[in-house]
């Protein structure tokens, strides 16, 4: 007697389309040379690696990435770290810059237009489902669970949602849902966000994750492209239209969030401001981090540079190389200095008699002697001068560098150069 076969995962019939063209201006100087999804995160990854890793770990083997502004570092990272997809295994990885492929089009005019301009490429793959993702959020999620819900509900679109307190939901697009989580209205940054039926004090906010059948999405994109009044955006145009004229379903992130079981709650962050970016990095330093990068069952794939091991040198009483409650990447040398609750990316050099606390250093930073940093973010390649003190005098920090409302100081090389100009 034949055993019943387990249905094939829906992810194998899906394509993930990652929107990675946003400017990310709220990250200030961190996005002067790179687009937001290409910003370094968590000592060795880029922000976009989370959406891409979620897709790969979920079983999706066709991925497209739409790029636009300041895309060189992002494209270089994708070419180096995500070039292992093989056509002979029915896999694909497409980098899709805005390239005037559609007559009359230039730059992508909105998130929906970024998919519409590449619709012929998508349809050529013959995938059954499309999952559209923002490339600038940090989280771990099994998209297969969301695909299964989409299929079972018969929805035209399923929208990934996080639960946020109503008082904080004014900054999001909010889904008003019925008892079955069918979306009855979509409200963009409402002054009085509606509560959830089962949790009146909480609201469902959009994560910028959408699942469609490919045929339905193509139909909607062509309709939207022909509408001169549309801004050609998923959140502003396509999804509200479907809510009014079709069936839109909410998918709660808590149903598909990937954890090890040790975390206190599900973790999703929009790291779109310097304060949020700093906090999400520092969160990783917790003994039990809310986002576990050490989970081998759900790895965060990335391009890993060839680098030697991290090294800590000198063990004198006043000159001891050490790091506690910190992430320290390969190629780092901590020489006779103290590092606490900080994130050191690849190839950071910390010279003697320094004290680093609650700071995030991107790749290739050099910290010269007698430097003290507290609550700082240092851009890649910066050479900090000897004796620099940051995080102890708010007025001095604001004069010299970029100091945020949350008390985090962002330091770039032009800011350092201006100190001696």
UniProtKB/TrEMBL annotation:
User: What EC number(s) does its UniProt record assign?
Assistant: 2.7.7.27
Q: Which organism is it from?
A: Teichococcus deserti
Could you say which protein family the record assigns here? Belongs to the bacterial/plant glucose-1-phosphate adenylyltransferase family.
- Which positions bind alpha-D-glucose 1-phosphate? 108, 173, 188-189, 206
Query: What is the annotated quaternary arrangement, including any partners?
Result: Homotetramer.
What role is this protein assigned?
Involved in the biosynthesis of ADP-glucose, a building block required for the elongation reactions to produce glycogen. Catalyzes the reaction between ATP and alpha-D-glucose 1-phosphate (G1P) to produce pyrophosphate and ADP-Glc.
| Keyword Nucleotide-binding found | yes
Ranges for domain Nucleotidyl transferase come to 17-285
User: Could you tell me the Gene Ontology terms of the biological process aspect for this record?
Assistant: glycogen biosynthetic process
UniProt catalytic activity? alpha-D-glucose 1-phosphate + ATP + H(+) = ADP-alpha-D-glucose + diphosphate
- Protein's recorded name: Glucose-1-phosphate adenylyltransferase
Task: Print the keywords alphabetically.
Answer: ATP-binding, Carbohydrate metabolism, Glycogen biosynthesis, Glycogen metabolism, Nucleotide-binding, Nucleotidyltransferase, Transferase
Q: Where is this site: Could play a key role in the communication between the regulatory and the substrate sites?
A: 68, 107
The pathway it acts in is:
Glycan biosynthesis; glycogen biosynthesis
InterPro entries noted in UniProt? ADP-Glc_PPase, ADP_Glu_pyroP_CS, GlgC_bac, GlmU/GlgC-like_hexapep, NTP_transferase_dom, Nucleotide-diphossugar_trans, Trimer_LpxA-like_sf
Gene3D superfamilies in the cross-refs: Hexapeptide repeat proteins, Spore Coat Polysaccharide Biosynthesis Protein SpsA, Chain A
């Amino acid at each position: 007697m034949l055993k019943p076969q387990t249905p094939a995962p829906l992810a194998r019939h899906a394509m993930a389309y990652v929107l990675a063209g946003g400017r990310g201006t709220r990250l200030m100087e961190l996005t002067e040379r790179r687009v937001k999804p290409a910003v370094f995160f968590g000592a060795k990854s880029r922000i976009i690696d989370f959406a891409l890793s979620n897709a790969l770990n979920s079983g999706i083997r066709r991925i497209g990435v739409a790029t636009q502004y300041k895309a060189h570092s992002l494209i270089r990272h994708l070419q180096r770290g995500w070039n292992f997809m093989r056509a002979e295994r029915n896999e694909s990885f497409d980098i899709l810059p805005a390239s005037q492929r559609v007559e009359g089009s230039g730059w992508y005019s909105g998130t929906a237009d970024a998919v519409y301009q590449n619709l012929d490429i998508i349809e050529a793959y013959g995938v059954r489902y499309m999952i559209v993702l923002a490339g600038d959020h940090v989280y771990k999620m099994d998209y297969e669970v969301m695909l299964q819900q989409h299929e079972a509900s018969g929805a035209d679109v399923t929208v990934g949602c996080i639960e946020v307190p109503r008082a904080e939901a004014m900054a999001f697009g909010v889904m008003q849902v019925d008892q079955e989580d069918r979306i009855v209205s979509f409200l963009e940054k409402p002054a009085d966000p509606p509560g959830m039926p089962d949790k009146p004090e909480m609201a469902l906010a959009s994560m910028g994750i959408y699942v469609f059948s490919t045929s339905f999405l193509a139909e909607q994109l062509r309709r939207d492209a022909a509408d001169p009044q549309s801004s050609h955006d998923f959140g502003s145009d396509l999804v509200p239209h479907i809510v009014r004229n079709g069936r839109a379903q909410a998918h709660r992130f808590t149903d598909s969030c990937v954890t090890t079981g040790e975390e206190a709650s599900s973790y999703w962050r929009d790291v779109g401001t310097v304060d949020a970016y700093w906090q999400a990095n520092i969160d990783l330093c917790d003994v039990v981090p809310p986002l576990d990068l050490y989970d081998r069952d759900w790895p965060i794939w990335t391009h890993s540079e060839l680098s030697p091991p991290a090294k800590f040198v000198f063990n004198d009483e006043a000159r001891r190389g050490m790091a506690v409650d910190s992430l320290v990447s390969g190629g780092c040398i901590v020489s006779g200095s103290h590092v606490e609750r900080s994130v050191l990316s690849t190839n950071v050099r910390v010279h003697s008699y320094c004290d680093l606390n609650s700071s995030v250093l991107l790749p290739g930073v050099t910290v010269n002697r007698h430097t003290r940093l507290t609550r700082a973010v240092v851009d890649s390649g910066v050479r900090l001068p000897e004796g620099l003190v940051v995080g102890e005098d708010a007025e001095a920090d604001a004069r010299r560098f970029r100091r945020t409302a949350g008390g985090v100081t962002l330091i770039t090389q032009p800011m350092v150069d201006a100190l001696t100009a």
